[in-house]
Amino acid sequence: MADWDHIVVGAGSAGCVMAKRLAEGGRRVLLLEAGGKDSYHWVHIPMGYLYCINNPRTDWCFRTEAEPGLNGRALLYPRGKVLGGCSSINGMLYLRGQAADYDGWRQMGLTGWGWDDVLPYFKKSEDYSEGASDLHGTGGEWRVEQQRLHWDVLDDWREAAHAAGLPKVEDFNTGDNEGVGYFRVNQRSGWRMNTAKAFLRTAPKDRVQVEVNAQAKRLIIEDGRCVGVVYDQGGVEHAARCGGDLVLSAGAIGSPQILKLSGMGPRDELRAHGIEVQYEAPGVGANLQDHLQLRCAWRLTGAKTLNTLASTLIGKAMIGADYVFRRRGPMSMAPSQLGAFSKSREGLATADLEYHVQPLTLEAFGQPLHDFPAMTASVCNLRPESRGTVTLRSGDFRDAPKIAPNYLSTPGDRRVAADAIRQARHIMAQAPMAKYAPEEMKPGVSFETDEELAQAAGEIGTTIFHPVSTVRMGVEPDAPLDAQCRFKGIGGLRVVDASVMPVITSGNTNSPTIMIAEKAADMILRGAGV
User: Fold this and answer.
1) Are strands 179-182 and 338-342 parallel, antiparallel or unpaired?
2) Which among 8, 243, 253, 254 has most CB atoms closer than 10 A?
3) What is the largest CA-CA distance in the chain?
4) Cα–Cα distance between 19 and 210 in angstroms, integer?
5) What angle do CA 315, 317, 321 make, to 5 degrees?
6) Alpha-carbon distance 406 to 70, whole Å?
7) 16 in helix, strand or coil?
């Protein structure tokens, strides 16, 4: 007997979309979220990401294994543990990636995933504040607005990037994102927009039941088919069953962990933890890809930056008042305001670097701002060659998995890192920035050769929170999913989240994950691939 038509495991960026769309299609849906409600006030104030990341109330607080490419450092690895998932704690930047990303997926054999195929799904969710067009939609749940603050020093960096050869652009979401401009954000009138507010709160109440603090222990597999899930809620074990597909949307870290705990993964790994093998799937937990940002920073003279504005009680009071009365100013700002996409070397067809430019500096995330004017121009390799893994620490669902991104593990990635730092320096050396007399703080002018810069990248590199591809779609035998997000070898099971991407997109990954959920829900409702 089935309790539900569908069960969705994970109420994050994909899961909230899946629950709403399936319910709109007349299906009865149980949505399970391992975290709590998104009632914490810092979830909704844009600057609140500072208080949500590395906070066990809203973040799983994962850490990577010690990374050889990062000179033995282990990184904080934030993942949302709250309704809305990572959309409740992320940088709120609305970016789709490049048309070539999705055309590349199609050329890998994933029919239906080209740019022209996925664009309608981006537009379906979108509520673009600047109006509808061939590229943008209005009236959807996913609000996209311009940012509500301004910094002269960022305008000058934009001019410097233009002087260095980058075109000025107003929209990074046309399919070709090369250029420099201001990011659009997922906010509404100065408040964060997460997928819980956008999708879940507007879903049919009579067809969606949401259970929070409900952590999946394992999927129920009977006769080669997934028929439900066993989950823990407050120390009590529950089981729920569904007649249609169970949708696993626990994210690029959570989904492979749950699959392995359920007996779907590499045989030797499962047996090592005493887990009965339901289906040998060596690709589960493999192919981890992420964007490593290199936090290049400069001390400035005579610049107004957040460092100096937030260094006094008067400045902090002004920041608070600006937000309370106008929903503007630093408390409304995304972690990065200005962005750029560029090519690390000549001969590339599309941009392979992304900059996140900020009017602030600090030693590390969670530490105080410096008390002098300064700015950060983080730059990341959009198409890393390095591949990592997510593996079980034990057979206990409560134990965090081992996360090993394997950053900078290829000569190509180390070369791009060196070229990226050189390019960031070149932009800062342009005339529009000269009035600030920029002094390089990180990585430091002593690093010059390719080998030195790759070593420096290992010191200043950190995740920009874009893990994907650990349960990838593909036509290859070792790819766990087919092009309909169905798990190969087990019926009734689909995975729908960032883990399904065959290759990482050329930009931030949250809105592409929402697009994937839109398309997957449509496939389920239309019976595609059934």
Assistant:
1) antiparallel
2) 8
3) 72
4) 9
5) 120
6) 9
7) helix
CB-based contacts of 133: which residues, under 8 Å, 6+ apart? none
Beta bridge partners of 182: 338
pLDDT one-digit tens code per residue, 31-50: 999 999 999 999 999 999 99
**What is the model's pLDDT at position 1?**
65
Which pLDDT tens digit goes with each residue over 243-267? 999 999 999 999 999 999 999 999 9
Residue 162 CB contacts under 8 Å (≥ 6 apart), including other chains: 168, 180
Q: Which of 344, 491, 332 is nearest to 420 (CA)?
A: 344
Contact criterion met (CB below 8 Å) for 83 and 36: yes
pLDDT at 434: 98
Counting beta carbons within 10 angstroms of the beta carbon of residue 203, is it exposed (0 to 12), middle (13 to 18) or buried (19 or more)?
A: buried
Name the phi and psi angles at 21, rounded to 5: -65, -40
**What is the Cα gyration radius of the chain?**
22
Question: Closest Cα to residue 480, out of 286, 285, 255, 284?
Answer: 284
**Strand 225-233 relative to strand 214-222: parallel, antiparallel, unpaired?**
antiparallel
């401009």: which residue's tokens? Answer: 181
Judge contact between 95 and 142, C-beta under 8 A: no
Among 360, 403, 405, 369, residue whose Cα is nearest residue 385: 405
Active site residues: 466
Cβ neighbourhood burial of 268 (10 Å; 0-12, 13-18, 19+): exposed
* Neighbouring residues of 244: CB distance < 8 A, sequence distance ≥ 6: 5, 6, 27, 492, 524
Place of tokens 């080998």: 451
Separation between Cα atoms, residue 18 and residue 25, nearest integer Å = 11
What stretch of H or E contains 227? strand 225-233
CA distances from 113 to 103, 379, 529 (A): 7, 28, 14
| Residue-by-residue DSSP string for 188-219 | ETTEE--HHHHTGGGS-TTTEEEESSEEEEEE
Distance CA 380, CA 393 (A): 29
Strands (E), 348-447: 353-358, 374-381, 389-391, 402-404, 439-442
Task: Report the distance separating Cα 160 and Cα 211, nearest Å.
Answer: 50
Q: Are 506 and 98 in contact (CB under 8 A)?
A: yes
Q: Which two tokens stand for residue 282?
A: 């060596």
* Bridging pattern class, strands 126-128 and 142-144: parallel
Domains defined for the chain, CATH in brackets: 6-41+195-285+468-526 (3.50.50.60), 148-182+292-381+406-463 (3.30.410.40)
CA atoms within 13 A on the CB side of 483: 16
At residue 338, φ and ψ (nearest 5 deg) are -100, 140
Among the listed residues 31, 20, 10, 7, the one whose alpha carbon sits nearest the alpha carbon of residue 229? 7
- What's the rounded Cα separation, in Å, for the pair 70 and 364? 15
> DSSP label at 80?
B
Distance CA 165, CA 257 (A): 44
Q: Are 214 and 233 in contact (CB under 8 A)?
A: yes
